[in-house]
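User: Round two. Same drill as before: sequence, then structure, for each protein.

Assistant: Same drill it is. First protein:
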Amino acid sequence: MNNQQLSAATFLLTDQDDYSADQERLNRAIMQFIKDHWHHDEHAVFVLTGDAGTGKSAAIARTFSHIQRLARQKSGFLAGSQNNLLVNHQEMLKIYQEVAGADTVLHKKDFAKPTPFINDHAKTGVRNDITFVDEAHLLLTQPDRFNRFDQHNQLTEIIRHSRVVVLVFDPHQVLKLKSYWDWPRLHAVIDHYPHQIFDLSHQFRIKGAQTVADWINAFTAGQILPIPATDHYDFHVYTDGTPLYQHVRMVNQRHGLARMLATADFPFTVFGNKTWYVHAGSLRLPWDKINMTSTPWAQLPKTINEVGSIYTIQGFDLNYAGIVLGPAIGYDPHTQKLQIHLDQYQDTEAFKNRSDIPDLAQAKTQIIRNSLNVLLKRGRLGVGIYATDPNLRQALIEAAQESGRP
């Protein structure tokens, strides 16, 4: 698979996509930040933030590649420097390593998950020079024996073992309590060090339709606005899951990378041989299985017959996303607001209790809203929605009719 195919299938920009002025400015800002702190003994942290789809991962991947090119030259201030890019997301790690295999500058060992990086550096005591962290909002904020992380905060440990840290942070993509982040929690870590925060705003993923991104932002906050009418984005509401799935299959045949996705409020287990299903009206499709291959889920042809989850698809681009909103996402016709039913959410791993979060119900509610944000912003060319809750389904249909959309 060449870089063009990889780009079309992932968070990376294709060759036809120009980098925004913000991204060019970001690259210069990161390089200047590194130079400013290169000869200091203290640690320093550069934070990149921005909405889903603004090209954060693509931008830091480009900058990291540039840094590694300089690190592997014989001269220059970065020559011989030891640098890594970390991501706590197995499917995204596959893409980074796949890109490295097709690149003469990057090596697969340049990319790793946070826990092995932390544990290795704790043993050797050797400090990394520059550590990039993609999807830093997935870093653990408590010990996790399953992941072999015994300390209390992965970001704190990464900073401890690095001269400069460059991280991507979006609190609206936090999906588990064990990696619960918000801006106050981030500042509690980075305010101990020199730091800079850079915001990206240009929307890359949702093609030509900022109004769609604005609608999704309002929806995840609880408000249903009229569905935007745009010729540049295929945005429809469905009264049943079967026609939605048929449309996904049609788009997949024409353009590729169209998949069904759902909120995590249909029963499932991660391990075991039992097949669990997502129900959407007359539609019944199996949940995605654990992907033991080196190919990301969305690139496997057979997954057109499955339903992906937030963990499968976070950070990736699809051409079209068919979204099933499960029973945890309801609607109150009297208040005209979304209702979040915590007791209907089936992702028990996401809701493992913590004693250090004052308002646990609010944190859990925000995690479900974040999952909506992640799912609804996957489609580059379009999104289709089916809601299992009758009140929500009717409200969405009326919102579509207001703009003349089916």
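Second protein:
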Amino acid sequence: MSISRKQFTLSAVLVAILATGGSFMFLHKNADAKATQDTNAQAAVTVDVANVVSQTITDWQEYSGRLEAIDQVDVRPQISGKLIAVHFKDGSLVKKGDLLFTIDPRPFQAELNRAKAQLAAAEAQVTYYTSNLSRNRRLIESNAVAHQELEQAENEARTASANVQAARAAVESARLNLEYTRITAPVSGRISRAEITAGNVVSAGNGAQVLTSIVSVARLYASFDVDEQTYLKYLSDQNNAAQIPVSMGLANEEGFSHTGVISSFDNNLNTTSGTIRVRATFDNPKGSLLPGLYARIRLGGGQPRAAILISPTAIGVDQDKRFVVVVNRKNQTMYREVKLGTVQNGLQIVESGLQAGERIVVNGLQRIRPGDPVTPHQVIMPNSQVSTAQQPQPTENTANSAAG
């Protein structure tokens, strides 16, 4: 009987030990599960996400160029003489016909007077020889003079007439030389400085000095080089070139505030660079644009189309590939390779790899990997004017595809 009580006591102790061990194991498992949950909660980092933007756009190509004057003239003297006056201020705007320089006109006025006197003498000889010829023709009818005298009178009349023409040409030449003493602006525009000052002697001919220069400013060319693909795609039909939208921005401007038209193309493609030179014309009513300024050119082409737009901050680089990180409805990340187009108003065009309404990580790519859980912080797509409420929400199909 005593043995039975001992056995019973031992059995009770064993049962108590087993019960205590089971409770300990249960508590240990619960602790492990809680630690795992805590670890997963800590792994879900907070990242900025934004909805992919879909907008109707016109494709634009951007180039760098320089402004060029449509008219650029070096002002040179057409006669030799002493420069006695400069009539403009350096760097000022002048109109066509404005007086710029004066060369001493006195020698040329004297030459004109001399030429006029010679013309008067030649005209007097014409009168005399013409009268003599008429008299000899009357006398020849009565045989009062010989035919030789008549022929001589005719020759003298013709010579006198030729002398009048030469004298008139001399007068015209002298008058032109006198006009050349007043050097005027051949075109309207902005004038440079006076290279020769009053008191110096200037010379005409092949070695004539440049007195100053004038560049037109009412309109200017913007010259830039277009790549072969763009030329073939948008510009090869040169009959419609004037309808291609083109705009320009200066170095100190953010956008493209100046609009113009395509005016000309070069006659060949540069095989070294694979580009062709294009000129666009821009109005310059205020005269603030100057030849030589750096210009950013934006060239449009094609019909408006729908496009997927994202912020450049959302794009990652994987060797020669570009990718984004998509966040599905379960807040899990997914690697997505994309094909990029050009930049449109600060947003990157995505040609393939994304759909409108999908959510992508726009800030914090370096802190996550594909498949990681995240805590999304919804923001507006950077550089976009579309509000969060206006942005399309992910559809069920889109979410399922992202979840895959």
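The radius of gyration is 46 Å.

User: Perfect.
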